[in-house]
Amino acid sequence: MTLADLYSIMPIIITAVGALFVLLCGPLLLSASLTAIGVTASVAAGVWAAFSTPTSTQAVAGLAFTPLARFLIPLFCFAAAITLLLSHSYNERRGIKGEEFPATVLFALFATCVLPCATNMLILFLALESVSFAFYILVSMDLSRAESGEAGLKYLLLGAVAAAFTAFGFALLFTGSGTLQLSGALARPENRVIISAGWGVILVGMAFKLSLVPGHLWTPDVYQGAPAPVSAFLSTSSKVAAAALLLMLLALSPPMPELRVPLAALSVLSMVLGNLAALRQQNIKRMLAYSSVAHMGYLTLALLSGSRDGYAAVLLYGAVYTAMNLAAFGAISSLSVEQERELITDYAGLGFTAPLRGGVLALAMISLAGIPPAAGFIGKFFIFYSAIKAGAIALAIIGILSAAASAYFYLRVVAQLYMHRGESPAPKPVSLAEGIALCCASLMILVIGVYPGPLLGAIEAALQ
Amino acid sequence: MLPTYLTLMLLFPLLGGLTFAVAGRMLPRTLVEVLACATVWGSFVCAALAAAAYTGPQVVTLADWFATFDLAIPISLYLDPLSLAMTVMIGFVCGLIHIYSVFYMREDEDYARYFALLNLFVFAMLTLVLGETLPLLYLGWEGVGFCSYLLIGFWYSDPANADAGRKAFIATRIGDVALMIALAWLFQLFGTLSITKVNGMGFLMPVSVITMLGILFLIAAMGKSAQVPLMVWLPDAMAGPTPVSAMIHAATMVTAGVYLLARLLPLIGGSEIALAAIAITGGVTAFYGATCALAQRDLKRVLAYSTISQIGYMMLGVGAGAVTAATFHLLVHAFFKALLFLGAGCVIAAMHHEQDIYKMGGLRRSLPLTFWSFLVGAACLAGIPLTGGFFSKDSILLAVWLKGGVLYQTLYLLGLITALITAYYSFRLVFLVFAGENGHVHRSSGLTVMQVVLIPLAILGLFGGLLDLPAYLGGGYLSGFFASLPADDLPSASHEQEIGLQTVAGALALVGLLTAYLRYGKGRAERMREAQAQPSSLISFLAQGWYFDRLYDLVLIRPYHALARFLWQRVDEAVIDASVDGLGSGVGGAGRLFGRWSTGKVAVYLISFAAGAALILGYLAWLAL
Amino acid sequence: MEATLFYILAAVLLIGILLAITARQAVRSIVYLVTSFFALALMFYLLGAPLIAAFEVIIYAGAIMVLFLFVIMMLELESPEKLAKPNFKNWLPALLLAGAVVGALVVLLASRVQAVPPGFTEIPVRQFAFALFKQYGVAVEVVSMQLLFALVGALYLGRRR
Amino acid sequence: MSVPLSHVLIVASLMFAMGLGCVIAWRANVIMMLIGIEIMLNAVMLTFVGGSAHWGIADGQLFSLMLMALTSAEVSLALAMVVYLHRRKQTVNTDDFNSMKG
């Protein structure tokens, strides 16, 4: 191992060391400085990853800083940094104390950074499970609310079952192919049936992680129970990581025509049921959870196409979705008072009393609805474009129709913000950290929406 | 120079809108008002300069929006007679309406939001008109829809207004989806979304495909242009401020559908069926709108239905393949309809926001300027000979007549009947509002300026016919200008034929005028008395817009809500749990099935998850067998 | 001989698990489970994985199951009448779904003749160790982080307020 | 030894399905649900060890070892959560944890 090898996995080292450092020095430092350390570590890791050249050689046994990792690690770091910025004031309001929160966020970041670097299924699986593991802890962090612990237990029980499924899938892939190396494992033509069974079981596990129907039922409960910054992080990083895992596996394996129908079914069910279920939700976090189900359905639609365009659309949508959900949950987190504002009607008139946060929330909703020029439009455009190009026209039309219907419930929030006068308690003034986080997220939405060229270039490089 | 003009034309309102949206509240009111007008007039000046510099159809590529993978969408604009005429009209009408708005909205606190939306609307509309690629057009299309949604619900404190906004949004959304599907399909077929390229490649496809595409575009146009059966939103859209109605829901946005079809006519024109569908939609809508306008009592709703009807005429023109005639009517209509709405705005402002025409009267003396301009507008609408509306409407009817065939001749007759009804209801309006006595008005300094704005519109409406005089009067400017447009190769009429048809139409308009005079001018007192009584069933049928709202509520909205409610509560959480329990006890009666919904349980989640696993694995095993 | 032993062990394993999941008390089910895990460890040994067999006994039967017992004792869940048992209504979906899954899997895994089996070979501990630290060194680090945070999470939740 | 690989896999599948059945059926007791998950993970380990022996490489055994570590981490966190929630709600019946729904 040379120094250059170490440099190339530096983002992973930074996050791991950051997590340990926060844990060790937690009792000695103020919580503000812990958050600052966490943000610094994530930003440093992200910047380092963005500015180093990717290689295909293994730096350390089992890890390689691939082009894909170069694209995804900055994205994960962005999400983690925003989450940490948001969580500081939120935790103060909610009485969540201690170094555990920033340390666990950094641990989750560490695991997400390992995931795209993995060159074999063992590391891939461990990274994926570590991500979930960190979220089991983060979701139940709020000891003052019963829902938080309940959500944690639900997530853990279902997550463990899903993990067993995923592991079983990997076991079958290994048994069929005789190697755990990603490059070799999926290319073997023999033992086709065992491998296809393995794929089936993995899909089941991933349906849970991506919250695709019928593995989606945990999503609303967990989003509702978790602290809002954690929901922001959970709905972005863990989803994108799971999508990246599927992408890595699908891109390496030879075309598996038998997977088309299950993937299509998962995608259609998620798009339609997610949007329909969100339609009548009164609770904003549950509404966003169901919308997340629908959005993962769109993402699966792009995965299904199996082409390079489709994979590009997945990465683009991952970035877009990260920006949108960070903005939405960020605004929710920042607008919370002693209690979170649960109902959509609790947001009435906040567009005037809290212009920045109301505006960010409205922008996020407009983007989620896919209305130009927000980023959501570009993301959806590419998804449907790739699906149509791959010949999945019927699926694309179902997607377009359900996306059109979804505008209704997103714009309901906008209408509440700007077209009603509310008597809900006024929010606390926005703190500097929250302001920075919200501005970054909404800026990302706008920049991707108006000028997606550079991002598309980066994605093209990531798929080399 | 052309690229500079076009860029500036788009940039002015965009920057204005963004500035007001972000910082409008911090700027002084006068500055916002002046800037808002200045940006739009700047836009108009650019359009005029572009028109002066115009030599021939031209694609101007400003920048690459994205060009990655094999999809490249440049930001390119297309300037041809059609888009040029539209931009000049939009700049002018919107400019006047901005000035009008300044005075109309004097008392409103929310001026920043209002002008931000108005400016953004102008930007989106210009993007729609100028876009060379369909995605750019779609962007503008969505943009105008969004601005319109927010402006209809501008006075949101009244829930009815917010509802109207939502209704407009949903109805036009149906059209948007059709457009999106059509775009996706077009891309799949041709591999490009450039309008000029697509237009040139229509012959490559079988006619059935073109027909389907044409129908999809027609649905899109129905939503945006309020054509039957998606017209229900427009009358309700009158909930917004009157200048908004004038600008968006009469002069500009609602013509976007007509513009889209005219723009893509070289493609769609390949299919006779699609053209016929467009013509029928137009004809039926024209008739529908006119009959509904007959029975309305609300001043703005009369005008709204007349808009639906007039856009129906334009669609009829497009369906007959006469882009020139349709555009001619579009332009003239923009002038006189803006005029009518702004005049109505003056009346409403003067009458303390009273909109019931039966409670008005005698305004002829107290608001002479409004009266004369409104009279000109009504004459144009009615098609009284020698006004702009007369020539433009007539060129459409002429084109329909010349197209020949049973279908088009029937539509011609329908158009004539509609013209008669139109003349009747326009003057009904004039007589009820301006004739008679009891003219108490509320004067304000703003009212004078608002009335002055009407003058240029009145002149344009009155002499709009000069744009495209019939051939026997020396031919028109517009026809020559549009000669370069493809697919406008209609058989030309002989002068005698043309004069004959115009005589018929003119005579009908005069008959309408006369009938209206007899009923509402002379018999005014009697009508007033009748209005107090319970309306007859025919009248309420017409007044309610043929009960389309109720029909939709019954056929679409309730099942939709029921379905959503069912899927959300019942399938997702209740059925799975209840059926599991019901399976065990063996008696899963329907009542228990739906009545018992205990949710939030991990076990239910696990069972559905495992069921998914069983299904996926079962499918794979079935394949392997 | 070894093959017969394998099938006997498999039978013990499956019956043990069946008893464990239908046991009336959690403690009994733990005991059944420990038995099956011993059988499983022997099967691992037969399949040429002595190290995993040892770990199975030490970690699973020794540590994890004891942890379960400890928690059961601590929460005093032992009095059987306090806890609802799954009745037929609960078992039916479980049976249906597990049956469907196992049916599909058996069809998939047994319906085709496998590629020529190289025969089971024993893997020496040296090879195992080489693979662990040469090929998958990072996995050890990731898992160690995970164990650390399991501790962090458990301590956080167990903290008295 | 002359046991065909498919038999190992079938035993593992049976074990996996039994674990799944246990998780689904024991909705009244989180501890038993966790035991079911342990059974499922052991089935995965059996598959890995069988595959490892079939191909003569150590990778599968390694995966099993890591799974063991992972499960112990998961179990300790899960049990901590059970203790925590039991302290709050005096129950281990998952059906009682249903304050969020809809």
Automatic annotation (TrEMBL), chain A:
Pfam families assigned to the protein according to its UniProt record, in alphabetical order: Proton_antipo_M
Start and end residues of each NADH:quinone oxidoreductase/Mrp antiporter transmembrane domain: 118-403
InterPro entries: NADH-Q_OxRdtase_suN/2, ND/Mrp_TM
Record's keyword terms, sorted: Cell membrane, Membrane, NAD, Quinone, Translocase, Transmembrane, Transmembrane helix, Transport, Ubiquinone
Regions crossing the membrane: 6-25, 32-51, 71-89, 101-118, 155-174, 194-218, 230-253, 259-278, 311-335, 347-371, 383-411, 432-451
Region forming the signal peptide: none
EC number(s) from the headed UniProt entry: 7.1.1.-
Compartments where found: Cell membrane; Endomembrane system; Membrane
Catalytic activity: a quinone + NADH + 5 H(+)(in) = a quinol + NAD(+) + 4 H(+)(out)
Protein topology in the membrane: Multi-pass membrane protein
Primary subcellular site in the record, as a coarse category: membrane
Chain's role: NDH-1 shuttles electrons from NADH, via FMN and iron-sulfur (Fe-S) centers, to quinones in the respiratory chain. The immediate electron acceptor for the enzyme in this species is believed to be ubiquinone. Couples the redox reaction to proton translocation (for every two electrons transferred, four hydrogen ions are translocated across the cytoplasmic membrane), and thus conserves the redox energy in a proton gradient.
HAMAP family, sorted: NDH1_NuoN_1
Protein family per UniProt: Belongs to the complex I subunit 2 family.
NCBIfam families attached to this UniProt entry: NDH_I_N
The protein's assembly and partners: NDH-1 is composed of 14 different subunits. Subunits NuoA, H, J, K, L, M, N constitute the membrane sector of the complex.
Protein name: NADH-quinone oxidoreductase subunit N
Organism: Geomonas propionica
From TrEMBL, chain B:
Annotated NADH:quinone oxidoreductase/Mrp antiporter transmembrane domain residues: 134-420
Primary location: membrane
Subcellular location(s) of the protein: Endomembrane system; Membrane
UniProt KW keywords: Membrane, Transmembrane, Transmembrane helix
Domain (NADH-Ubiquinone oxidoreductase (complex I) chain 5 N-terminal): residue spans on this chain: 65-115
Residue ranges of the TM segments: 31-52, 84-104, 111-130, 136-156, 177-195, 201-223, 244-262, 274-295, 302-324, 330-350, 371-391, 411-435, 447-467, 499-520, 602-622
Membrane topology label: Multi-pass membrane protein
NCBIfam families: NDH_I_L, PRK06590.1
Protein name (database record): NADH-quinone oxidoreductase subunit L
Source organism of this protein record: Geomonas propionica
Gene: nuoL
Automatic annotation (TrEMBL), chain C:
Localization terms from the record: Cell membrane
Domain of life, source organism: Bacteria
Record field: catalytic activity: a quinone + NADH + 5 H(+)(in) = a quinol + NAD(+) + 4 H(+)(out)
Main localization (coarse): membrane
UniProt EC number: 7.1.1.-
UniProt feature coiled coil, ranges: none
Transmembrane feature ranges: 6-23, 30-51, 57-75, 95-116, 136-157
Membrane topology summary: Multi-pass membrane protein
Gene3D superfamilies cross-referenced by the UniProt entry: NADH-ubiquinone/plastoquinone oxidoreductase chain 6, subunit NuoJ (1.20.120.1200)
Keywords recorded for this protein, A-Z: Cell membrane, Membrane, NAD, Quinone, Transmembrane, Transmembrane helix
Family from the record: Belongs to the complex I subunit 6 family.
Function in brief: NDH-1 shuttles electrons from NADH, via FMN and iron-sulfur (Fe-S) centers, to quinones in the respiratory chain. Couples the redox reaction to proton translocation (for every two electrons transferred, four hydrogen ions are translocated across the cytoplasmic membrane), and thus conserves the redox energy in a proton gradient.
Protein name per Swiss-Prot or TrEMBL: NADH-quinone oxidoreductase subunit J
Species this chain originates from: Geomonas propionica
TrEMBL record, chain D:
Location(s) in or outside the cell: Cell membrane; Membrane
Main localization (coarse): membrane
Catalysed transformations (reactions): a quinone + NADH + 5 H(+)(in) = a quinol + NAD(+) + 4 H(+)(out)
Transmembrane segments: 6-26, 33-57, 63-85
Keywords, alphabetical: Cell inner membrane, Cell membrane, Membrane, NAD, Oxidoreductase, Quinone, Translocase, Transmembrane, Transmembrane helix, Transport, Ubiquinone
A Pfam family recorded for this sequence: Oxidored_q2
E.C. number: 7.1.1.-
GO molecular function: oxidoreductase activity
InterPro entries from the UniProt entry: NADH_UbQ_OxRdtase_chain4L/K, NUOK/Mnh_C1-like
Topology with respect to the bilayer: Multi-pass membrane protein
Functional description taken from the UniProt entry: NDH-1 shuttles electrons from NADH, via FMN and iron-sulfur (Fe-S) centers, to quinones in the respiratory chain. The immediate electron acceptor for the enzyme in this species is believed to be ubiquinone. Couples the redox reaction to proton translocation (for every two electrons transferred, four hydrogen ions are translocated across the cytoplasmic membrane), and thus conserves the redox energy in a proton gradient.
Complex and partners: NDH-1 is composed of 14 different subunits. Subunits NuoA, H, J, K, L, M, N constitute the membrane sector of the complex.
Sequence similarity: Belongs to the complex I subunit 4L family.
The protein, known as: NADH-quinone oxidoreductase subunit K
